[in-house]
Design a protein that fits this description.
With 249 residues, the protein is an alpha/beta fold. It contains six helices and eleven strands. A hairpin with a 2-residue loop joins β8 and β9. The chain binds S-adenosylmethionine (SAM). The site of S-adenosylmethionine has 21 residues, from β2.
Length: 249
């Protein structure tokens, strides 16, 4: 399975009910207000934080590679009376009708791009879709290995139709050379005598600050700031979630 199709089918169905915390819209609202719109969220999924940003009157379009996630986003938008413009595309093959003053990802979705070649294509797409003087915001982190006691641990949630939804990590492989970690996740849906069980590899690919800066430069983007959760400049070896700001060179 292509990593861009991970959040489809049963994974998209379970994503909403199992989401423990929604993306905090604040940093992204502040970013758009500071730099200006229109804005584009890459990997907008089922609508957090895009829906809240739209509710605040900010002009934000969305892109996601999963039509199942976008269907959920559109349903939530309809329920909440929010108008949205979203595109079913992969961020490594972006081709949109307009340019944006701000382009951002909410949370570390960029680490779902499986290798440097795909990441470079996405950065080139970001560069091509930035309006004159625009800024991109890419959050990145280095994932920790899943601890042994978490392997096999099941999280459960209820589907709207009463089905029991379950997800657990079955196994994990980590490769420091390619900077990838693949966690085999088991998704289950049980309703009466009906059961579906699907196992999918969830891949994450990470970067040192230096590696990301070089990749961005190849795409014609300069890293203008790297900040931590509190908006403070981040030390070079920080593995927590950091916000990289990028501008055309
Ligand atoms: C972890 S979800 C985050 C969704 C949303 N921002 C949230 O916090 O609820 C990541 C999203 O990125 C999308 N995605 C993964 N790879 C992608 C790609 N190559 N291009 C566009 N979207 C992608 C997935 O389909 C999924 O909806």
């Amino acid at each position: 399975m292509d990593p861009a199709d991970f959040y489809t089918g049963i994974v998209a169905e379970i994503y909403g009910p199992l989401k423990s915390v929604s993306q905090d819209p604040e940093p992204y609202a502040a970013f758009i207000q500071q730099i200006g719109g229109p804005a584009l969220e890459l990997g907008c999924g089922d609508g957090d934080p895009l829906l809240e940003l739209r509710r605040r009157g900010l002009e934000v379009d969305g892109v996601d590679s999963s039509s199942d996630m976008l269907e959920r986003l559109r349903r939530r938008a309809d329920e909440q009376g929010i108008r949205v413009t979203v595109f079913h595309q992969r961020m490594e093959a972006l081709n949109l009708p307009r340019r944006y003053r701000t382009v951002f990802l909410a949370g570390p979705t960029f680490t779902l791009l499986p290798d440097d070649t795909t990441a470079l294509a996405a950065l080139r797409g970001i560069r091509a879709h930035l309006a004159e003087g625009g800024t991109a915001l890419v959050p990145l982190f280095t994932p920790a290995p899943t601890s042994a006691d978490q392997i096999g641990r099941v999280r459960t949630a209820a589907a709207p139709d009463g089905a029991e939804l379950r997800v657990s990590a079955v196994a994990e492989q980590r490769d420091e050379t390619t900077r990838t970690q693949t966690t085999l996740l088991r998704y289950e849906r049980h309703h009466g005598s009906d059961s579906t069980v699907v196992e999918r590899p969830w891949l994450m690919h990470w970067y040192s600050q230096d590696q990301f800066e070089k990749l961005a430069a190849t795409a014609g983007l300069a890293v203008t700031a790297v900040t931590d959760q509190d908006g403070e400049p981040a030390p070079a070896n920080d593995t927590d979630l950091l916000h990289f700001r990028l501008q055309a060179m």
